[in-house]
């Protein structure tokens, strides 16, 4: 999985957010996580948005390892879906994550990502 796939996945998941300019120019992962902006959206959107950078890093790492150690190529759409599903699984650690998951189907994240993460 090359940088092109990762960059396209990142653009697909966060390209609609206007306040990310300074985040990507950080020197390291810690800087990215510390400068990750808050979003003004629904409770679900906030939980998803705050979980996104961790899920992105985790899924990218896992899929790169699958390519290196198992010879498996991953498409951009597969990476995006894995990130969205991991985000969905991990929002339970948020204060009201379990309740959010009961109130919103996973399809909401899979099909309406931009609306969920921007509050539109």
Structure description:
The chain is mainly α and 120 residues long. The chain has one domain. Helix 1 packs across helix 4 and helix 3 packs across helix 4. The radius of gyration is 14 Å and the shape is globular. The mean pLDDT is 88.
The level of helicity is: 55-70%
User: How large is the share of residues in beta strands?
Assistant: under 5%
Q: Write down the overall geometry.
A: globular
Cα-atom Rg, whole angstroms?
A: 14 Å
Q: What are the secondary-structure elements, in order, as H or E?
A: HHHHHHH
How far from one another are the termini?
32 Å
The number of helices is 7
Low-confidence stretches: none
Largest sheet: none
Q: What is the number of domains?
A: 1
Q: Roughly what is the average pLDDT, rounded to an integer?
A: 88
Determine the structural class based on helices, strands and strand pairing: mainly alpha
Give the total of beta strands: 0
Quaternary organisation = single chain
């Amino acid at each position: 999985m090359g940088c092109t796939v990762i960059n396209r996945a990142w653009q697909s998941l966060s390209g609609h957010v206007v306040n990310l300019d300074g985040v990507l120019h950080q020197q390291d992962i810690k800087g990215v996580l510390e400068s990750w902006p808050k979003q003004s959206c629904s409770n679900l959107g906030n939980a998803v948005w705050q979980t996104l950078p961790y899920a992105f890093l985790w899924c990218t790492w896992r899929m790169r390892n699958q390519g290196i150690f198992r010879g498996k190529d991953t498409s951009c759409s597969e990476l995006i879906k894995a990130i969205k599903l991991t985000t969905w699984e991990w929002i339970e650690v948020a204060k009201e994550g379990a309740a959010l998951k009961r109130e919103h189907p996973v399809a909401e994240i899979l099909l309406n990502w931009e609306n969920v993460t921007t509050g539109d």
